[in-house]
Write a structure and sequence with these properties.
alpha/beta, Rossmann fold, 2 domains, five-stranded antiparallel β-sheet, elongated
Length: 321
């Protein structure tokens, strides 16, 4: 499993190879509350099959009905725009909350060569910007993750695809396996650091690179920025502390450590001896994750992933860290 963008585009390419027509649907803008933000994708096949979501189910049924009636692929235009919820009647029909509306771009044909390039970039964990022009449906792909995640002008819309955020996991543990798998579905690029051969030698997730360097060197080499999170989950204080003493000095948007409140209190006392001030120590999330009563490694991974989602939204939209 991977993030929504990659899965949607892979299904589109697969359906093209099988000889189907399919429409790629992108959320352009929303007014009022919406379950899916701008840049969200879905693909609808000529027999009504759908992968992805642009409204959480509010308008997908209508698009499928248009497809089956033949109107979704009618006309020669490669791209068309649709607005749902323009008045109270439509808001009730599409089960949109009062005052809400949704604008979509519907691409009836996507260039297969550009589609293959986009999928290859996502499979290699690269961030790319896809730009589409309204006039003729022409699309352009560019490398790099600079600028806003999604933009729209009169002439075009543009959005970043790929893992915009990265997470360094200290420790190739069972918990790290569960967590790395979950993070891939949330568009985080995970990297694992563990110099211990008894753990590193049996790491078996090919899509999650493993580095055998010492954790402090790994953190310094990564260069923590506002799109980086560092999570110490090795259960080995020597390794975890090495990573944390550097991560807390960086610009990483989230730094967390596994362990009980007592364990993390002792950890903060140790870290205070490594030239970390109280502001830096205050950035440490420990115990890491949200308090959902988790006990098993899989449950703990869910709680940590939830904490990362909360921190990412706080970073992007303001609010408590």
């Amino acid at each position: 499993m991977y993030g929504n963008h990659r899965e949607v585009l892979e299904h589109l390419a697969k359906w093209y190879r099988e000889g189907h027509r399919a429409a790629l649907v992108t959320v352009l803008s929303t007014f009022g509350g919406s379950p899916r933000p701008p840049g969200s994708l879905a693909v609808i096949r000529d027999d009504g099959a759908i992968w992805g979501s642009v409204s959480g189910g509010c308008v997908e049924d209508d698009l499928i009905a248009e497809l089956k009636a033949g109107s979704l692929f009618a006309g020669r235009e490669r791209i068309s725009l649709r607005v749902f919820g323009t008045d109270a009647e439509q808001q009730a029909r599409y089960r949109l909350p009062c005052g809400n509306s949704l604008r979509l771009a519907i691409e009836r044909k996507v260039d297969p060569a550009l589609l293959a390039m986009t999928i290859a970039a996502l499979q290699n964990r690269r961030v790319v910007r896809r730009t589409v022009w309204f006039a003729d449906g022409r699309a352009l792909l560019a490398e790099g993750g600079d600028g806003p995640q999604f933009t729209e002008t009169r002439e075009q819309f543009s959005h970043l695809l790929g893992p915009l955020d990265r997470v360094l996991l200290i420790g190739a543990t069972e918990l790290a396996r569960y967590l790395a798998t979950i993070l891939a579905t949330l568009d985080f690029a995970a990297l694992v650091c563990d110099p211990r051969p008894e753990y590193a030698d049996i790491w078996d997730l090919p899509d999650v690179p493993l580095v055998r360097a010492m954790p402090d060197d790994c953190v310094l080499g990564l260069g923590g920025d506002s799109r980086t999170a560092v999570l110490a989950v090795s259960h080995d204080p020597k390794l975890d502390d090495l990573a944390l003493m550097e991560a807390l000095k960086s610009d990483s948007f989230y730094v967390g450590a596994l362990g009980s409140r007592q364990t993390n209190a002792r950890r903060r006392e140790r870290l205070a001896g490594f030239d970390l001030d109280q502001v830096q120590l205050g950035r440490l999330h420990g115990p890491v994750g949200l308090p959902i009563g988790s006990r098993t490694p899989a449950e703990i991974a869910v709680s940590i992933a939830a904490g990362l989602i909360k921190a990412r939204h706080a970073r992007d939209h303001g609010g408590d860290r």
